Amino acid sequence: GAGVSQSPSNKVTEKGKDVELRCDPISGHTALYWYRQSLGQGLEFLIYFQGNSAPDKSGLPSDRFSAERTGGSVSTLTIQRTQQEDSAVYLCASSREGARGYTFGSGTRLTVV
Amino acid sequence: TQLLEQSPQFLSIQEGENLTVYCNSSSVFSSLQWYRQEPGEGPVLLVTVVTGGEVKKLKRLTFQFGDARKDSSLHITAAQPGDTGLYLCAGVLGNTPLVFGKGTRLSVIA
After folding, report:
1. A32: part of which helix (H) or strand (E)?
2. Which helix (H) or strand (E) covers residue A19, if one does?
3. Are the CB atoms for A111 and A12 separated by under 8 Å?
4. Taking CB atoms and an 8 Å limit, are B97 and A104 in contact across chains?
5. Does A106 lie at the interface with B, CB-CB under 8 angstroms?
6. CB distance B42–A91 less than 8 Å?
7. With an 8 Å Cβ cutoff, are B42 and A106 in contact?
8. Where does the pLDDT of residue A1 fall: very low under 50, low under 70, confident under 90, or very high at 90 and above?
9. N or C: lower Cβ tally within 10 Å for chain B?
10. pLDDT, tens digit, for every residue of A29-87?
11. In whole angstroms, how far apart are CA B24 and each of A102, B21, B88, B89, B101?
12. Residue B66 confidence (pLDDT)
């Protein structure tokens, strides 16, 4: 597609439920990034994919968080047993190999009630 | 500990005024980027600065990278309501993903 597409745009879930957030990057972009943005905070790095592998998972806050990328394209971020502190906007970005700038999607606003 | 400190955190000005926002760190970055984010959208890349002392202009926006590559500034001349948004700086450290500051939230009042 023309841009980075994220779905759903909004998700309200009950505490303890699992959620899946999807990111469809720009075609041909080999790198894919997940960030989390909480109110009043900057972008917090979660995980990075180069192709289908994740060289850097250092930002995942707990073992309830996992992510995968298949076919060098679509990525899914899964949060198990959601907690209220997981409420945030989850942003996905992609970039071409060697490029410095990222192209971001519009994000998924997750609210855990 | 925040690697990139942005100031001010909030800024509200009248249309036509000039302003400068800052991005500071104790770390040396190989490059630094500025993004603008509007409500409900993801950040959009404005500029990348690479060389210490570099100045780049984008219409009424002037970006400067410090000589030591530890800090940067964004100056807006004659601000307009369309400049309203969250301005984020982000730095590249080696081969790692971008590190972002918390941003400066700018409101330009007509």
Report:
1. strand A31-37
2. strand A19-24
3. yes
4. no
5. yes
6. yes
7. yes
8. low
9. N
10. 999 999 999 987 789 999 999 999 998 888 999 999 999 999 889 999 999 999 999 99
11. 21, 10, 12, 9, 9
12. 96
